[in-house]
Amino acid sequence: MQWKTAKWMVAVGLLCASSLGSTASTYRFNLDPESSSVDAKVAFMGIGNRKAYFPAMRGKVVLSPERMNEIDLDVSIDATQLKAEDGLTTGRLKGKDFFYVAKYPVVRFEGKVLSMTSPTAGTVSGELTARGVTRPVNLNLSFSAPPAQADGKDTIRLTGVTTINRRDFGMTAYSLVVGKKVTITIKTKLVPG
């Protein structure tokens, strides 16, 4: 009899624990395309930098203040809309040597694990896909307000920064004049949705 009672109590405890876990508040935000931008900066000829701008993006963020180690961050960037400082560079970046937008029109970042380092900063671990190649990437985030205090009703500004090696994504052209490290910065406004 004691065994059956103990077994029943364990089952009730597990049921309560699972139902408590499922009641955590989860908030969904959409990236506001009008308030979002991405730029990529790379060293050029060892004396300066070149930038590319990606004005068209969309995405979402799902998070729970009770489970700040989890995040569903999904950002898609329209690489066909990229712009550089001049037409020649824009054409080269869209071509086969770099983003090859005719075949790979979308650059995508998906993140699932969030490590907060302060109330308004953290790192999300995920995967970046560009030019048909997917690699693990850590994106350093800063929030305009603590996401652990989110109520799902207010907008939040978000900035994400990472550095990648362009050669890891098959972009090996012009290696003598264009640096291999590329710093990517995402700036966006998260709108409840």
Descriptive terms for the model:
about 190 residues, alpha+beta, Lipocalin, eight-stranded antiparallel β-barrel, 11 strands, about 15% helix, about 50% strand, signal, TTHA0802/YceI-like_sf
Short description:
With 193 residues, this protein is α+β, with helices and mostly antiparallel strands. It is 15% helix and 50% strand. The chain has a single domain (25-192), classed as Lipid/polyisoprenoid-binding, YceI-like (Lipocalin, Beta Barrel).
CATH superfamily: Lipid/polyisoprenoid-binding, YceI-like
Helical amount:
10-25%
Structural class: alpha+beta
- Distance from N terminus to C terminus (CA atoms, Å) equals 52 Å
Q: Which shape, going by the Cα principal axes?
A: elongated
User: Mind telling me the C-alpha Rg?
Assistant: 21 Å
In total, the number of domains comes to 1
CATH top level class name: Mainly Beta
* Strands ordered across the widest β-sheet: 1-4-5-7-8-9-10-11
Number of strands: 11
What is the succession of H and E elements?
Answer: HEEEEEEHEEEEE
CATH topology: Lipocalin
- What's the main sheet like? 8 strands, antiparallel, barrel
Put simply, the count of helices is: 2
Multimeric state: single chain
Question: Which CATH-level-2 architecture?
Answer: Beta Barrel
Task: Report low-confidence residues grouped into runs of 5 or more.
Answer: 5-22
Protein name: YceI family protein
Pfam family, one: YceI
Signal peptide: 1-24
Keywords: Signal
